[in-house]
């Protein structure tokens, strides 16, 4: 499943009555298949098996009570390539997986709960996904090209503009836009900006001591005020405040 799946993950919590922990995560250009039991997100209804599309804002979940989550994080574009979906239909949405994924995959998820060992959860779901995967003979050339672009965005921090991607991969702007809309659900500019913002956060986490203006320029923002607004919207704190807080409480 490595062509489509990035990783499997599990989360559980058991909090006393009245205690709420607000979990906050930076958004990634990935879709997730999850089974969520207990006190779940407000977006999860009676069916615990859901698909979460790319979230364009800071991903926040108020954790309370007792809950258990097991999930598959697809590679960028992986869910659309695997299931033949239009990823743009899922952007900023949480929807039941039933009817969108093969019934065998949904059933495998529905049969998982906190009594099943983590390794067994992975084995069962990986087997269900593998049995339902699309044929690879010939391959999906658009998806393969998309993965190459995504890998390049992640590996090369000097890529700051979509035009650089178009030139390096010899791909027309309109085709690149269509490819990202179909497979990822957001445009290449958004994905590139998110990856560079993640780089900026990692710099601050690693003890960056330069100016915020230099940090902004390094990752493609030539207006420090614009960078500060984008950082604050995504992280929940201004860059300088975030650095000061991390210095006081490393890790």
Can you characterise this structure?
This is AraC family transcriptional regulator. Pfam families: DUF6597, HTH_18. Residues 144-245 form the HTH araC/xylS-type domain. This protein has 2 domains: 5-132, no CATH class; 141-248, Arc Repressor Mutant, subunit A, CATH 1.10.10. The strands form 2 sheets. Strands 1-6-3-4-7 form a 5-stranded antiparallel beta sheet. It has 10 helices and 7 strands. The mean pLDDT is 91. The protein has helices spanning 78-83, 103-110, 118-132, 141-155, 162-168, 173-183, 188-205, 212-218, 224-235, 239-248, and strands at 5-14, 20-25, 32-38, 49-52, 59-64, 66-74, 94-96. It has 251 residues and is an alpha+beta fold. The radius of gyration is 19 Å and the shape is globular. Helices cover 43% and strands 18% of the residues.
Mean pLDDT: 91
Number of domains: 2
Strand content: 15-25%
Outline: globular
By helix and strand content, what is the structural category?
alpha+beta
Low-confidence stretches are none
Q: State the total count of DSSP E strands.
A: 7
Report the sheet with the most strands, covering strand number, pairing sense and barrel closure.
5 strands, antiparallel
Helix content: 40-55%
Rg (C-alpha, Å): 19 Å
Strand order of the largest sheet: 1-6-3-4-7
Q: What string gives the helices and strands in order? A: EEEEEEHEHHHHHHHHH
How many helical elements?
A: 10
Report how far apart the termini are.
32 Å
Q: What tags apply to this protein structure?
A:
Arc Repressor Mutant, subunit A; 2 domains; two-stranded antiparallel ribbon; 7 strands
In short:
With 251 residues, this protein is an alpha+beta fold.
């Amino acid at each position: 499943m490595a062509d489509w799946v990035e990783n499997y993950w599990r989360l559980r919590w058991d909090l006393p009555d009245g205690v709420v922990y607000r979990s906050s995560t930076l958004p990634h250009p990935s879709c997730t298949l999850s089974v969520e039991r207990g006190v779940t997100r407000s977006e999860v209804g009676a069916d615990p098996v859901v698909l979460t599309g790319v979230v364009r804002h800071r991903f926040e979940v108020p954790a309370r009570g007792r809950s258990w989550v097991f999930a598959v994080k697809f590679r960028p574009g992986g869910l659309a390539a695997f299931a033949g979906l239009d990823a743009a239909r899922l952007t900023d949405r949480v929807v039941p997986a039933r009817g969108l994924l093969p019934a065998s995959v949904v059933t495998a998820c529905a049969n998982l709960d906190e009594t099943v060992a983590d390794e067994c959860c992975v084995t069962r779901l990986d087997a269900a996904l593998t049995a339902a995967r699309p044929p690879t003979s010939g391959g999906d050339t658009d998806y393969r090209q998309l993965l190459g672009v995504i890998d390049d965005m992640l590996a090369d921090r000097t890529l700051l503009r979509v035009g650089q991607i178009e030139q390096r991969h010899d791909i027309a702007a309109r085709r690149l836009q269509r490819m990202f809309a179909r497979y990822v659900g957001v445009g290449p500019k958004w994905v590139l900006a998110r990856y560079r913002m993640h780089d900026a956060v990692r710099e601050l986490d690693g003890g960056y001591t330069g100016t915020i203006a230099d940090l902004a320029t390094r990752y493609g923002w030539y207006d420090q005020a614009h960078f500060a607004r984008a950082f604050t919207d995504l992280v929940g704190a201004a860059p300088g405040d975030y650095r000061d807080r991390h210095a006081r409480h490393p890790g």
